[in-house]
């Protein structure tokens, strides 16, 4: 198993280099880091900035210099805030990590539970009901669901019941002056976690149901039942463990993509995470932030694919043997 992971890690290095170069090349050919100096009357000022940033060098040379600086911890400086990018991204990343952690935890528990139940109770009333709900969940755009959730669960109840404060907060992760894990933090998390996880729950439930149905029809499941193994143990100990393997693949890819894909959720709820940082940097042509942001997201996507490979061996001993 360790050999497999080491081989996958080696494969990931050229993939990361190629991906980072393509992203760097697209950013550098799309955005001009010296555009803010276009109105400066003295052309020497802009030329000096071009030479300082190495923009007069070939793209491959610019990439080599940028990658070397990145590995040394010099990620450049944000044009908008004049802060080092190496300070901006960790702050945004921590907010996104909190949102992803709770969203994925809730989504995994609900999706696996409903998926297994629907497979075991195939064609029952509950199965039909959950199937209909998953289709509804998949069809709900996050931007629409987030706004509806704010109206009906936060703003609406305050107006309907004449409350002094909204029952659920929908701006940021903490109120002013609050920090840490407390009730204020929970009330801020409910709505963004719901918005983040609604489509994920629906999608993962379908995967888990299909995988569980596939496993329940296997020979070893029938053999276990014929030997008199209790039904609950057959489902949890034998069927569920193998049925999780396809879902692990989907989860690993989805979690990696979420590190850069929470743009809508973070914008709606004003959460200063990776998605919102990307939007503000894109609008403001903040090249240094965009380049570092893309490489960090690519690292997380590859890292979670490696996590999926490791989990394969844990869930299926046959992979460890091979």
Give a structural overview.
This protein has 322 residues and is mainly alpha-helical. It has a single domain (84-321), classed as MetI-like (MetI-like fold, Orthogonal Bundle), CATH 1.10.3720. It contains 13 helices and no strands. The chain has helices spanning 2-30, 43-53, 59-71, 85-120, 125-139, 142-160, 183-216, 219-226, 231-261, 263-268, 274-283, 287-315, 317-321. The N and C termini lie close together (8 Å).
Structure described in brief:
With 322 residues, this protein is an all-alpha fold. The protein has helices spanning 2-30, 43-53, 59-71, 85-120, 125-139, 142-160, 183-216, 219-226, 231-261, 263-268, 274-283, 287-315, 317-321. It has a single domain (84-321), classed as MetI-like fold (Orthogonal Bundle), CATH 1.10.3720.10.
| The CATH architecture | Orthogonal Bundle
Count the DSSP helices. 13
Number of strands: 0
Query: How much is the average pLDDT?
Result: 85
The separation of the N and C termini measures 8 Å
Shape: flat
Radius of gyration based on Cα positions: 24 Å
The figure for the number of domains is 1
Share of residues in strands? under 5%
CATH class: Mainly Alpha
Order of helices and strands: HHHHHHHHHHHHH
Quick tags:
322 residues; mainly alpha; MetI-like fold; 76% helix; flat
């Amino acid at each position: 198993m360790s050999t497999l992971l080491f081989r996958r890690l080696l494969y990931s290095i050229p993939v990361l280099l190629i991906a980072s170069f393509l992203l760097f090349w697209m950013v550098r050919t799309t955005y001009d880091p010296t555009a803010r100096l276009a109105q400066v009357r003295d052309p020497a000022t802009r030329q000096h900035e071009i030479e300082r940033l190495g923009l007069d060098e070939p793209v491959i040379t610019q990439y080599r210099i940028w990658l070397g600086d990145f590995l040394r911890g010099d990620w450049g400086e944000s044009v908008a805030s004049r802060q080092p990018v190496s300070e901006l991204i960790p702050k945004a990343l921590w907010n996104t990590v909190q949102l992803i952690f709770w969203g994925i935890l809730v989504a995994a528990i609900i999706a696996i539970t409903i998926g297994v139940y629907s497979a075991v109770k195939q064609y029952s009333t509950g199965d039909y009901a959950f199937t209909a709900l998953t289709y509804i969940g998949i069809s709900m755009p996050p931007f629409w669901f987030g706004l509806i959730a704010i109206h009906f669960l936060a703003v609406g109840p305050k107006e309907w019941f004449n409350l002094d404060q909204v029952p659920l907060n929908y701006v940021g992760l903490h109120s002013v002056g609050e920090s840490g894990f407390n009730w204020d933090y929970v009330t801020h998390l409910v709505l963004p976690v719901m918005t983040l996880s609604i489509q994920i729950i629906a999608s993962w439930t379908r995967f888990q149901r299909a995988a569980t149905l596939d496993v329940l029809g296997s020979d070893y499941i029938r053999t276990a039942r014929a030997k008199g193994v209790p039904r609950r143990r057959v489902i949890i100990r034998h069927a569920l463990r193998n049925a999780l393997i396809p879902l692990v693949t989907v989860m690993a890819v989805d979690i990696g993509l979420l590190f850069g894909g929470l743009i809508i959720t973070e914008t709606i709820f004003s959460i200063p995470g990776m998605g919102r940082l990307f939007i503000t940097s894109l609008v403001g042509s903040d090249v240094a932030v965009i380049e570092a942001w893309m490489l960090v997201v690519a690292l997380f996507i590859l890292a979670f694919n490696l996590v999926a490979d490791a989990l394969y061996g844990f869930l299926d001993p046959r992979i460890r043997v091979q």
